[in-house]
Amino acid sequence: RKEVEQDPGPFNVPEGATVAFNCTYSNSASQSFFWYRQDCRKEPKLLMSVYSSGNEDGRFTAQLNRASQYISLLIRDSKLSDSATYLCVVRPSGSARQLTFGSGTQLTVLP
Amino acid sequence: SQTIHQWPATLVQPVGSPLSLECTVEGTSNPNLYWYRQAAGRGLQLLFYSVGIGQISSEVPQNLSASRPQDRQFILSSKKLLLSDSGFYLCASRSRLGSYNEQFFGPGTRLTVL
Predict the structure, then answer these.
(1) Chain B residue with Cα closest to A86
(2) Which of A81, B6, B34, B81 is buried deepest, with most CB atoms within 10 A?
(3) How does residue B100 score in pLDDT terms, banded at 50, 70 and 90?
(4) Interface test with A, best of B6, B34, B44 (most A CBs within 10 A)
């Protein structure tokens, strides 16, 4: 089983749609959670951290369910510029060495 | 925030040739440094990480090596490239303090081995 699993997509949605991505992680001791965004042929960049109580940043909402080891990202009112690959990222507890990246979910927002 | 510099941006090398990719970091001191590889259409694979000068941990057996001669310099090398070494190589830096500190990535080097 992969440490971080995501639906690879692709998700093709019209502008203005709401889209949700899901992610599961295997290490129950994981400590920190993130969503990164990667544009085509570019480096990943932090989109938002995911906190236990859930958090929102504009059109983006992230939620964490520790009991189910599940993370989600909701994008409302999709824009063309939201087209990218979204990476679910988990930091194991006590690990100084690395973040564990999911393979990513590809989103294309269509005009 | 941190700035990561990588060069070259693109590289085409024949099989069996040597490799040296360099990464330098600005805006932080004593960071954890990482080398990742991303094959076409695939996720990020951690190759090496370093918690300090001269300290290198390898995540996967391979014909690559890494070195950290200075606090903010991280080098990825190979003596003889294989076809399977082709990919997008990303250097990353992360401050040690805090659980939610951001990991910053460099712009990457796109390597094609022919």
Answers:
(1) B43
(2) B34
(3) low
(4) B44
